[in-house]
């Protein structure tokens, strides 16, 4: 099996000595967890979970593009949120990007906390 790592400056740098933004292997792109960081400052953007979800999806889109894929090729999404009271707001943004009959499979779980005290993290798997 051959694999290659993906790093792009169009998405936040994810501690490159610990993990890459994504790994491509066997025709799949495995994106590491993304949080709502601004790529130019590597700081969490201001705003609520809707703003954070938009930023994360923009970051994931940039990573997938660097790998030769796109949001349309996502087959599995895992979402981690710190408060299920935000579930409907998350979904309001989610359906702007993922709709129709070609939806990826999805898991959403509540967790105690996330890096940088943020409220949401998303990881995914896409095809090339």
Mean pLDDT across residues? 95
Query: N-to-C SSE series?
Result: EEEHEHEE
Under CATH at level 1, the class stands as: Alpha Beta
Number of helices in the DSSP assignment: 2
Overall, the morphology is globular
Which stretches are low in confidence, meaning pLDDT under 50 for 5 or more residues running? none
In total, the number of domains comes to 1
Structure, described:
The longest helix is centred in the middle third of the chain and has 19 residues. It is globular and about 40 Å long. 23% of the residues lie in helices and 29% in strands. A hairpin with a 2-residue loop joins strand 2 and strand 3. Helix 1 runs parallel beside helix 2. The chain has a single domain, classed as 60s Ribosomal Protein L30, Chain: A (2-Layer Sandwich). With 128 residues, it is α+β, with helices and mostly antiparallel strands. The chain contains two helices and six strands; from the N terminus they run E-E-E-H-E-H-E-E. The mean pLDDT is 95. It has a six-stranded mixed β-sheet, covered by helices on one side.
Quick structural summary:
This protein has 128 residues and is of the alpha+beta class. The protein has 2 helices and 6 strands, in the order E-E-E-H-E-H-E-E.
């Amino acid at each position: 099996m051959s694999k290659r790592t993906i790093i792009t400056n169009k998405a936040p740098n994810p501690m490159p000595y610990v993990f890459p933004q994504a790994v491509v292997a066997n025709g799949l792109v495995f994106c590491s967890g993304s949080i709502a960081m601004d790529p130019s400052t590597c700081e969490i953007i201001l705003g609520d979970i809707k703003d954070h979800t938009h930023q994360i999806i923009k970051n994931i889109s940039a990573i997938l593009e660097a790998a030769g894929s796109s949001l349309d090729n996502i087959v599995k999404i895992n979402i981690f949120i710190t408060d299920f009271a935000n579930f409907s707001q998350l979904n309001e943004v989610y359906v702007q990007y993922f709709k129709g009959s070609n939806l990826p499979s999805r898991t959403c779980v509540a967790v105690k906390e996330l890096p940088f005290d943020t409220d949401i993290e998303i990881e995914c798997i896409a095809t090339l």
